[in-house]
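Researcher: We're teaching a course module on how sequence relates to structure. For the next exercise, students receive a sequence and then see the predicted structure as C-alpha cells, so they can try to spot secondary structure elements on their own. Here is the exercise chain.
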Amino acid sequence: MQLQTQSIESNIDINSSESRKSMAKLVTKLFELWKLPAADQLNLLGLSETSRAMLTKYRKGNAIPNSRDMIDRVGLLLSIHKSLRLLYPYNNDFRQQWVSKRNQMMNNSRPVEIMKEKGIIGIATVTRHLDFLRGQ
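Model: And here is the predicted structure for the students to work with:
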C-alpha cells in the first residue's frame, strides 16, 4: 500500500472540510502503514484513549477538527512520511518500520516513542531530524 501526499500538499485549505477529510484519510492510512496500535494513533493525534471511535470516523472520511493543534500534528506526520519516501525511495519496508526502529542519531530511541512522550514537540523534532537528513 502506498500513500500519496502530493495531491493534498499543494492546495490545503484548513477551513475546507474537504481538505480536512483528505487529511484524516491520509493520516489513518499512514498509521496503518506504520502498523501503530490504536493507543499510539490516538496519542499522536493528541486524543485521549477514550476517543477510539474518532479513528474509525476518520478512516470513514470524517474531517479532522479545524483546530490548529490537530492540523499541525497531521501535517507534521504527513511530512515525516514524505521525507521518508524521499530519503528511502526504494525501500518500502524500511520506510514503514522506521518510526518503530531504534535510531542511533536519536540517542537510540524509537521515533514513535519520542513523538508519544513529547507530543507535538516530539513530532516536530522527528520532522526536523528528517529534514536535516534530507539536506545533507
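Model: If you want an answer key for the exercise: The mean pLDDT is 91. The first helix runs from residue 6 to 9.
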